[in-house]
Specification:
The protein is an alpha/beta fold and about 475 residues long. It is about 25% helix and about 30% strand. The protein is built from nine helices and 21 strands. Its EC number is 2.1.1.190.
Amino acid sequence: MNMSPLKVGQEFLVTIKRIGINGEGIGYYKKQAVFIPGTLVGEEVVATCTRVAGGYAEAELVRVKRKSKHRVQPACEVYGQCGGCQLQHMSYQEQLRIKRDAVSQAIERYTNLDPEECDIRPTIGMKDPYNYRNRAQMPVGYDEDGVMVGFYSMNSRELVNVTDCDVQYEEINTVINHAVDLLDDYKVFAYAPKTKKGTARYIVVRRGFKTGEVQVTFVFANNEFRKMNALAKDLMKYCPDVKSVYLNINNEDTHEIFGKEMKHIAGEKFISDELGRFKFNLSPRAFYQLNPEQTIKLYNQVKYAAALKGNEKVVDAYCGVGTIGQWVADKASEVRGVDITRQAIADAKENAKLNGLTNTYYAVGKAEQIVPKWANEGFKPDVVIVDPPRTGLGTELIEMLKRVQPKTIVYVSCNPSTLAKNLKELTKKYRVDYIQPVDMFPQTSHVEAVVRLVRQDRPSKKQR
């Protein structure tokens, strides 16, 4: 039986050797890995063990004995309590470096590929890495002053009151604070999952990057509140930028934000926004990147990786409301998008009309079923763009790609671990040309990456 050198409650001294995938520092105490949030590489810290698990331990920072030159003062007053950000104690240049390292470490851990040969490029960052999020979805709860919203603390269901989030648009913070005041005024009580009493579960706010239009969705556990129209009108009076208000009913015991029932309450059904030369209409459920400034950089990287000449057939898998496919459509002969969400496909078709595109086509369904059908009908894609959720590509979709064999795959990843696991399978038929990390979420441990994969019988972009 292996005995841990650390015991819960034990205070110890350790040097941080690297940063983990969730932004925590990792040190080794008598060869046992210890995960300590809020620490930086090279720091000597005193910590208290909080948990011992198989082969590793977790600890809480007590004090830093030797500081890293990359340590900075966090901007947020509740940093360390709120679980939304993990890296505000780290200089931004160091954040960009460790995010590239996260991709490299995942490649090394889950594949037989040499990270050096994968050409992992420096992370593309932001000039101002604060106030960048165009959408907030904040749980509703209580504190001593009444109804409040916030974010859950790390690895718990304890809600931390947040009135001014430093990574959200200031205008979103203002709208949310007014919405909270109105819930209090109208005596809409917060929903308590344990007792199943109360009504308000979440406030979801989205703001257009260019237009400034705001859409608010109240998520309630039931239909008991009868003055929703009046509350919505009051909110639109206090916040003139609010152009659209919805009510969503979610009475399920689930971690999903939205339930099945979505009601339009006031204002417009959509808000509009612009990215580059493109216009988009956005409904509450529409997937839309949370950092518009970086989205433009990300999509330009996708376009560069696709290397279209004008005559290629492109498939946009997981197309959502069509943003990526439409971004590259001017350089393709035809773009076909597929997504399992019916509303997303309806939005994609509407957005294509809005942008005057005539070479796009959209279908509802699973890409692993739809794309082979298209190929059998004569639409064999030259380029497939995939932008999957954090869980990565499913086995069926990977097998479909290996069967259909497009010349190029452009993989947009939001999770280095699942990316690496997928690359292990895809590189049986494809070669990694390069990997370009993009920082979509400064101050957090998340990193996105654009990967260009070329069929093994094709020259790489570097070779041309």
